[in-house]
Amino acid sequence: MKFNKAYSDLINKLPPSLTKEAWKRLLSRKKSPMTEEEASTINPIVELFLRHEVNRYQKKLKHQRKSWPLDNLSNIYNNETSTKISIDMVNQESQTQDTVPICEHEEEISCRVKKKLDSLSFSAL
Predict the structure, then answer these.
(1) SS3 helix, strand, coil % of the chain, rounded to 5?
(2) pLDDT for res 47
(3) For 55, which DSSP code?
(4) How many CB atoms within 10 Å of residue 3?
(5) What does the alpha-carbon distance between residue 62 and residue 60 come to, in Å, rounded to a whole number?
(6) Which residues have a Cβ under 8 Å from the Cβ of 7 and sit 6 or more positions away?
(7) Least-confidence region, from 30-39, 70-79, 110-119
(8) pLDDT tens for residues 47-94?
(9) How far apart, in whole angstroms, are the C-alpha atoms of residue 30 and residue 22?
(10) Any residues with CB less than 8 A from the CB of 49 and at least 6 apart, and which?
């Protein structure tokens, strides 16, 4: 796997895993796959492909950076209202736990289930 040195500025903008993936994609395209020799020479198709990959990668990074950490959000709200706001996380554990339904009629339900299973087993025979 060797891209031409003319594309080193584009390749340096991509992580190694994406450059390997780009090389594989160039060689195994459905429409007009390239040979290793074609891909390692200066080729406008290779350059356009690498530019496209760099643009996709930078767009992805830009999109990921838009999320704000929670610590910064509390500072923003504090500055807007000019009072200290504390986030109440006392009930955090109880809010995130799955609620288990409590049934007082377990015996009645289990009896119904047993009857249904018995009727199904008899009808299957």
Answers:
(1) 65, 0, 35
(2) 92
(3) H
(4) 21
(5) 5
(6) 46, 47, 50
(7) 70-79
(8) 999 999 999 999 988 887 666 555 655 565 555 555 555 555 555 555
(9) 14
(10) 22, 25, 26
DSSP secondary-structure letter at 100? P
Measured distance between the N- and C-terminal CA atoms of the chain, rounded to whole angstroms: 65
Distance CA 105, CA 102 (A): 9
d(CA 102, CA 16): 53
Distance CA 54, CA 60 (A): 10
Q: Which of 30-44, 65-79, 104-118 has the highest mean pLDDT?
A: 30-44
Answer for the pair 13, 53: CB distance below 8 angstroms, yes or no: no
Q: Which residue has the tokens 């390239």?
A: 34
CB 114 within 8 A of CB 108: no
Quote the CA–CA distance of 37 and 22 in Å, as a whole number. 15
Q: Measured in whole angstroms, how far is the alpha carbon of residue 30 from the centre of its chain?
A: 26
Tokens of 37: 């020799």
Q: How far apart are CA 5 and CA 11, in angstroms?
A: 9
* Residue 53 identity: E
